[in-house]
Amino acid sequence: MTPEFIVEFATQAITLTIYLSMPMLGLGLIVGLMVSIFQAVTQIQEMTLTFVPKIIAVFLGLLFAAPWMLEKITIFTTRIFENIPMYIR
Description:
mainly alpha; 3 helices
């Protein structure tokens, strides 16, 4: 295992993590922005009004994106396990 290999492996893992978290973070951002605009327009400053819609949106996004996320992480993990003999050299 060379330092270059470890850096490349870590880069792939971090990239996959970011790639998998983007849909949920994007939904949370969009819903948060919409709720903030709603609060600014109506001048309602309720703290729970920001959290509940975000939690629901992220949960629904996770529900719909879970098969895709599971496929991506399974492919990555399978590739790691298949290449273990190459990693040991």
